[in-house]
Write a structure and sequence with these properties.
The complex is a heterodimer of chains A (460) and B (143).
Chain A lengths: L25 H6 L7 E5 L3 E6 L7 E4 L1 E6 L16 E3 L2 E4 L2 H4 L7 E4 L1 E2 L2 E2 L2 H16 L8 E5 L5 H14 L4 E6 H8 L5 E6 L4 E7 L2 E2 L5 E3 L3 H14 L10 E7 L2 E6 L7 H19 L9 H4 L5 E4 L5 E4 L2 H7 L17 H6 L3 H10 L3 H8 L2 E4 L8 H12 L8 E2 L4 H5 L1 H11 L8 E2 H7 L4 H4 L2
Parallel strand pairs in A: 1-10, 10-11, 12-20, 20-21
Antiparallel strand pairs in A: 1-2, 2-3, 4-6, 4-7, 5-6, 8-9, 11-22, 12-13, 13-14, 13-15, 16-17, 18-19
Chain B lengths: L2 H8 L2 E2 L1 H13 L2 E9 L4 E9 L4 H7 L6 E10 L5 E10 L6 H17 L5 E5 L7 H8 L1
Parallel strand pairs in B: 1-3, 5-6
Antiparallel strand pairs in B: 2-3, 2-4, 4-5
The chains are: A alpha+beta (460), B alpha/beta (143).
Chain lengths: 460, 143
């Protein structure tokens, strides 16, 4: 069973992790928490984070959507030269990872692995896990305990399916499923807190009490980073800005320092891929220029706001004014969506979703009276969208105005944006490396003895 | 069984001295406060510091490090509006922002083990900076 990884050569990306850990036996893997590091995976709706337990940031961060081409249409000469090997699943080929997704292919559709916290397609999840283990981390899943972060209200069926795959397909020696909100809470040193996790596909407010998620008080909204990106993109489009995907043009240097942009035409590009590429750009614009306004947004007070310049990949420079503030304010006031031309598809969200402060108050009010005070004073921000500039200040201000007088409102967020963005993964990473955690694993032999439903007992 | 509870009770041991000091504080009133720390290597919660009966709350806050986590208990003596002498014991989980995430995680997941041994805590406070465990907050809670 003594297997070393030196054979697994390849173009390994910066593997600074010492080789000590990955050459131990299975037995040591199980019980020597310090000997072999566990693998921690946080598969979100937008991004997959994966890495070794004990480290302070995930080694691999890549999109949790994949490219898919139906087999009959595969053009034999356009694959295989790229660094990521396509995977064959049934009659379609899946392309996973940032670089594979960055390469345009005829008829390649972009498919999500998760929607609203529910796995939509397990084959895609498998292809993402495969990519994380075999291409990013270069590990054999047989040798490492696996800690998977899961949404706070994950269903029993999904948890059992995950356990089944991990033990049957990947032959993992041990598994643990930990709730996102609990990991964030522990990572900030609190067993009790209110976790506001605003990610790509949704925003979830979950109270954690003594390390337990109070399920009945969890409050969720479909407003996350992706919806904000769409709002910004549509708003810019309505003002005449054309975001050209990177594959659709070529820039030539005609004279030193002077460029000419030439349009390229690929008629077989799918609509979903074009949109994916545009969103990548729009999301970068959002991260560069947007910040939450100090007070609720309205068109008149922001009409004279100074413009900020942003250079698009094709070389054109655009000016962004009120959208810088209007876009993030959608989190606080979803009905703003109605005022954005082109967002008609999300009108139901505009009508039904509540703003962030209301979600927080609603969630706290569903909890026992005795712990409300403590929740108000330990509101933790987590997730990529929560890293938005001024979001913490704005949320704290709104809550001060709307919360009961006696409450001491305190919104906490790590000053470090990596820690804020990856708080779930980091929490899992540290948890899995603690000595006192090692007794917690759901082991393969327990799985074999009790079956997948035992996950409910081992990881409640 | 909750994750934190199991980790704290089965994965971490609380040294006898923790319980003994606490009992001395509670029954004999010989300590004003006790600070506890975790030794990760030996998986043991031990007594870090004991404050004499004459010391005050500020002595406790001064004994907590800026960049590492601790647990503390504080015996708060006060006189109520109707001239009644009262004593309330506070449990404080101290996890300052500047401490390592590993320490925060360790203390947050190990708390239950110590809490279970200390019988007779009235209030619990979590704090990441001094303002969250100000004396005003202690007074406010004991009202």
């Amino acid at each position: 069973m003594e297997k070393t990884h030196s054979k697994r050569n390849t173009q390994s990306p910066a593997r600074r992790h010492s080789p000590k850990s990955r050459s131990k036996t299975l037995r040591e893997t199980m019980y020597g928490g310090d000997e072999v590091s566990a693998i921690v995976v946080d598969l979100g709706s937008h991004t997959c984070k994966a890495g070794y337990a004990g480290e302070d940031a995930p080694k691999a961060v890549f999109p949790s959507v994949v490219g898919s081409i139906d087999q009959m249409e595969v053009d034999e000469n356009d694959n295989s030269e790229k660094n990521s090997e396509p995977k064959t699943k049934g009659k379609r080929k899946l392309y996973v990872g940032s670089s594979a997704m960055g390469y345009r292919r005829d008829h390649m559709e972009v498919l999500p692995s998760i929607k609203d916290g529910i796995v939509t397609d397990w084959d895609i999840v498998e292809s993402i896990w495969d990519h994380a283990f075999r291409e990013c981390l270069l590990v054999d899943p047989k040798e490492h305990p696996m800690l998977l972060a899961e949404p706070s209200s994950n269903t029993q069926q999904q948890r059992e399916k995950a356990a089944e795959l991990m033990f049957e397909k990947y032959q993992a020696p041990a598994l643990f499923l930990a709730k996102n909100a609990v990991l964030t809470s522990f990572a900030s040193g609190r067993a009790t807190s209110l976790v506001v996790d605003s990610g790509g596909g949704s925003t979830i407010v979950a109270p954690v009490h003594d390390g337990y998620v109070l399920q009945k008080a969890v409050s969720a909204s479909p407003i996350g980073g992706e919806l904000l990106t769409d709002c910004l993109m549509k708003s810019l489009e309505s003002k005449g800005v054309k975001i050209r995907p990177r594959y659709s043009f070529k820039r030539k240097e005609v004279r030193p320092g002077e460029f000419q942009t030439v349009d390229l035409d690929f008629p077989n590009t799918t609509e979903s891929y074009r949109l994916y590429c545009q969103r990548v750009i729009a999301s970068d614009i959002k991260e560069c220029v947007c910040r939450a306004p100090d007070t609720p947004y309205d068109d008149t007070s922001y009409s004279n706001i100074p413009m900020t310049a942003y250079e698009l990949p094709d070389g054109q420079t655009i000016e962004i004014g009120s959208d810088r503030f209007k876009t993030p304010d959608v989190l606080f006031n979803p009905s703003l969506i109605k005022t954005i031309p082109g967002m008609e598809g999300s009108l139901d969200i505009a009508a039904s979703a509540r703003g962030l402060p209301q979600m927080v108050i609603e969630s706290i009010n569903k909890c026992d009276v005795d712990i409300r005070r403590e929740l108000f004073s330990s509101i933790l921000l987590a997730g990529g969208t929560a890293s938005m500039q001024q979001l913490k200040e704005r949320l704290e201000k709104d809550l001060l105005e709307e919360s009961p007088q006696a409450a001491r409102v305190k919104v906490l967020a790590s000053g470090n944006s990596t820690e804020r963005r990856f708080s779930v993964w980091i929490g899992g990473s540290i948890l899995a490396s603690l000595g006192s955690f090692q007794q917690m694993w759901f082991s393969k032999s327990e799985y074999e003895e009790h079956g997948s439903s035992y996950i409910q007992r081992k990881c409640p | 069984m909750a994750m934190a509870f199991k980790m704290a009770t089965a994965g971490m041991w609380v040294a006898d001295e923790c319980k003994n000091s606490f009992m001395e504080m509670k029954w004999k009133k010989v300590h004003r406060y006790i600070v506890f720390k975790i030794d990760e290597k030996s998986k043991l919660v031990t007594v870090d510091k004991v404050g004499g009966a004459g010391e005050g709350y500020s002595d406790l806050t001064a004994s907590l490090p800026d960049d590492d986590c601790r647990y503390a208990v504080f015996d708060f003596d006060f006189v109520t509006v109707d001239n009644c002498r009262k004593s309330k014991i506070f449990f404080i989980a101290w996890a300052p922002s500047a401490s390592k995430i590993r320490a925060k995680m360790l203390y947050a997941t190990s708390k239950d083990g110590l809490r279970r041994v200390l019988d007779g805590i009235h209030y619990e406070v979590q704090a990441t900076d001094p303002s969250e465990m100000g004396f005003d907050i202690i007074q406010d809670r004991a009202k």
